[in-house]
Amino acid sequence: MNAVDRELTDMMAAVFARHREQHPPEKIATWDDGLWAQLSELGLTRLTGSADLGGSGAGWAEAAELLRAAATHGVRVPLAEHDLLACRLLEDAGLPVDDERRTVCLLDHTGTARGVPWAEEVDRVVTVWHHGGACLVADVPTAELRITHGVNSAGEPRDTVTADPHLLTGITVPGTAIERLWLRGALARGVQVCAALDRILDMSVTHAVERVQFGRPLAKFQAVQTLVADIAAQASLARAATEAAVAAAVRTDWSGEELDFLVAVARSCAGHATSVVVRNAHQVHGAMGATLEHRLHEFTGAALAWRSEFGSVRSWDDKLTTAAMAAARDGLWPLITT
């Protein structure tokens, strides 16, 4: 993956670290106007937006680092939903983009979208729906939508949005635009999951070294060493698969033929890695890690929630199975060495 300027990544990390130091744990999954204003002033809320349309003109490599920095410090903010999904879709559709806060949703045949991130907190929802075989997009003020509050298992806002598509006026976009929207969301969640897994690894290593039991550090016990080694291996596998998908997206500007497969690999690896990492980390930490006072649950809960968004683990496994069967014997090796 293309190297990202070190000063930029250090600045991102510093912003989220300082924010986390100044805010209590119970506030991490709520909207913070001050943080959003600071991120906007730094050009991070529209990091990948076109410079001609008020964005910073960066790419997905930089966006991945931004998502990673927020997740690593346990800060929940809809950067992916606003910049990588909603505003990008508006740009693709040729619709105007301004400084208002946005998220995105895909309405089903009843005019309902469930699990929409941060819908109650934003100014507008970029709404997508199907009509007569066409895909339509509209930038809708939240006041014109019916929004029911909800949260995911990590306590983040995941609302239900209801609208009457017959009353909406939309711009027709190619079906591929919706497919790319889904892939971007899926890869963004993959990046966030990997950042959470890496943080869990760091916390587990630190706890095993510092915690003394029966007169010696936990890290001296072979059973604990095995648990931590498995965490490291699974986190590394998930990160490698995800970085390969991000690199392909950057290299091909989201047009590579192999991108669907690479994103599926990344999400499958990250999803299965989460099961092992979360289980082992809580075993390493014992009862202490299950308390609300300990920060471990912030990252294990987030990883478990994020791995099920923009496609479940099973759905990504099914995609890989379908691809392997289609490749058949002669095409399987080229498929997995892409």
**Strands of the biggest beta sheet: in what spatial order?**
1-3-4-7
The end-to-end distance, rounded to whole angstroms, is 15 Å
Structural class, judged by helices and strands?
Answer: alpha+beta
Q: Sketch the topology as an H/E string, one letter per element.
A: HHHHEEEEEEEHEEHHHH
Based on Cα principal axes, name the global outline.
globular
Estimated helix fraction: 40-55%
Mean pLDDT: 94
Strand percent estimate: 5-15%
Task: Give the total of beta strands.
Answer: 9
- The unreliable regions are none
GO molecular function: acyl-CoA dehydrogenase activity; flavin adenine dinucleotide binding
Cofactor: FAD
Keywords: FAD, Flavoprotein, Oxidoreductase
Domain Acyl-CoA dehydrogenase/oxidase C-terminal: 187-305
Summarize this structure as a short list of keywords or feature phrases.
338 residues, Butyryl-CoA Dehydrogenase, subunit A, domain 3, 2 domains, three-stranded antiparallel beta sheet
Describe the overall structure.
- The chain is an alpha+beta fold.
- The protein has 2 domains: 6-173, no CATH class; 176-337, Butyryl-CoA Dehydrogenase, subunit A, domain 3, CATH 1.20.140.10.
- The protein is built from 9 helices and 9 strands.
Summarize this structure briefly.
Helix content is 54%, strand content 12%. By secondary structure, it is an alpha+beta fold.
Topology of this structure?
Blueprint: H1 6-22, H2 33-41, H3 60-72, H4 79-93, E1 102-106, E2 112-117, E3 124-131, E4 134-141, E5 146-148, E6 158-162, E7 171-173, H5 175-210, E8 212-213, E9 216-217, H6 222-252, H7 259-285, H8 296-306, H9 313-336
Parallel strand pairs: 1-3
Antiparallel strand pairs: 2-6, 3-4, 4-7, 5-6, 8-9
Helix pairs in contact: 1-3, 3-5, 4-5, 5-6, 5-7, 5-8, 6-7, 7-8, 7-9
